[in-house]
Design brief:
Layout (H helix, E strand, L loop, with lengths): L1 H19 L6 H15 L5 H12 L1 H14 L1 H6 L1 H49 L7
Helix pairs in contact: 1-2
Length: 137
């Protein structure tokens, strides 16, 4: 349950900062960004926190339920801005997919380069072993 408590703490911090400083970013998003920065600063979390997230995944519907209720509550606002929301979702999905593909290709090239260097190094070592020294007369 420590993982859930940590997520709640960051969500509350984000909500608090959003309300106090009148930031136009929702508190949950701000809390997630702070959580991400914390994870980068501490170089991730221990394995036991990752294992505990399986419990959260089983109850993911309960965690998403408040978001769905808020969406139903804001139905009229959604209809008023539906075109802008849908266009921004499509564009952000396309941009996100493109960035993911570019980053994947960079890592794939880097991994292929490492593999190529390993193969070349092993080939060179094998050739050096096979070199036959001429017999002296």
């Amino acid at each position: 349950m420590n993982a859930f408590v940590i997520l709640c703490i960051f969500a509350f911090i984000g909500t608090f900062l959003s309300k106090c400083f009148n930031i136009p970013i929702p508190g949950s998003v701000l809390g997630s960004m702070i959580f991400f920065i914390y994870a980068l600063a501490t170089r991730g979390f221990k394995i036991r926190f990752i294992e505990q997230t399986n419990l959260l995944l089983t109850y993911i519907a309960l965690l998403i339920l408040p978001l769905c209720i808020k969406l139903v509550d804001s139905y009229q606002q959604f209809l008023h801005n539906a075109v802008g929301i849908i266009v921004s979702l499509v564009i952000s999905t396309i941009c996100g997919s493109m960035v993911t593909g570019i980053i994947f290709n960079i890592f794939l090239r880097r991994e292929n380069r490492k593999h190529l260097h390993r193969v070349l190094y092993q080939t060179i070592r094998k050739k050096k072993r096979k070199v036959i020294k001429p017999k002296s007369l």
